[in-house]
Amino acid sequence: MKLRVDIRGTLRGRERPFHLEVAFATSARSLVLSGPSGAGKSLTLRAVAGLLRPEAGCIQLGERTFFDSATGLHLPPQAREVGHLFQDYALFPHLTAAENVAFSFSRTWRRPSRAALAQALPWLDRLGLGGFAAAHPGQLSGGQRQRVALARALAAKPRLLLLDEPFSALDHRMRDRLRLELKDLAAQENLPLVVVSHDPGDAEAFGEHLVELEEGRVVSEETYRA
Ligand SMILES: Nc1ncnc2c1ncn2[C@@H]1O[C@H](COP(=O)(O)OP(=O)(O)OP(=O)(O)O)[C@@H](O)[C@H]1O
């Protein structure tokens, strides 16, 4: 991937303002954003996804420009074709595993069609969840829920996948397993990853390029494999 992020902005909350001024560029297939709590990792991810509009700067993936304050360009999230996997999985609790994945193919808020469900099943199979298509999130373990969320993110065929502390709610063994599975799937799909994490295991697995943030700024950047 060729990802270039160079963004600035100030968020004014109830307490002191938070200044974000983050710049990095990489050609690695996976990048890990690390740093202490409140460093600006999630905000950076949200800016890449298009959920937060920086005040200035630019964001580019390959030949595509997502954001450029000089020209006023700010592509909406859906036009960026960027997948997002959250820490809490963000599954719909009232939908089955298959319906949750099928939502990737749906453009409406209606329950997914039969055709969308049929498209979802191979993704559940790939994630080892073929037998759980009719289960609701509440009937699944944490690792299984995370797999459903991963299947849903991959099924949308994103050009880039953003993961925010993706395995933090899982135990060590499940974390190691899912890391390997994600690495394999990302390689098969030729899908670049940006992983926000302060877990050294994630840095080891996905840190071809490592960017460390502190108080809204890059304090170190290292490339292990470009
Ligand atoms: N909508 C907002 N308005 C104002 N301030 C915000 C907003 N969202 C986040 N912040 C502030 O920006 C700072 C960075 O937040 P961010 O969520 O990016 O941190 P993080 O590095 O992801 O931390 P963590 O590891 O705890 O998730 C925090 O101080 C937070 O309070």
Automatic annotation (TrEMBL):
Classification via InterPro entries: AAA+_ATPase (IPR003593), ABC_SmlMolc_Importer (IPR050093), ABC_transporter-like_ATP-bd (IPR003439), ABC_transporter-like_CS (IPR017871), P-loop_NTPase (IPR027417)
The ABC transporter domain, residue ranges: 3-226
UniProt key word Transcription regulation: no
GO molecular function term, any single one: ATP binding
A Pfam family matched in the record: ABC_tran
Gene3D superfamilies: P-loop containing nucleotide triphosphate hydrolases
Gene: modC
Keyword flag ATP-binding: yes
UniProtKB keywords: ATP-binding, Nucleotide-binding, Transport
SMART domains: AAA (SM00382)
PANTHER family the UniProt entry points to: SPERMIDINE/PUTRESCINE IMPORT ATP-BINDING PROTEIN POTA, SPERMIDINE_PUTRESCINE IMPORT ATP-BINDING PROTEIN POTA
This protein's name: ABC transporter ATP-binding protein
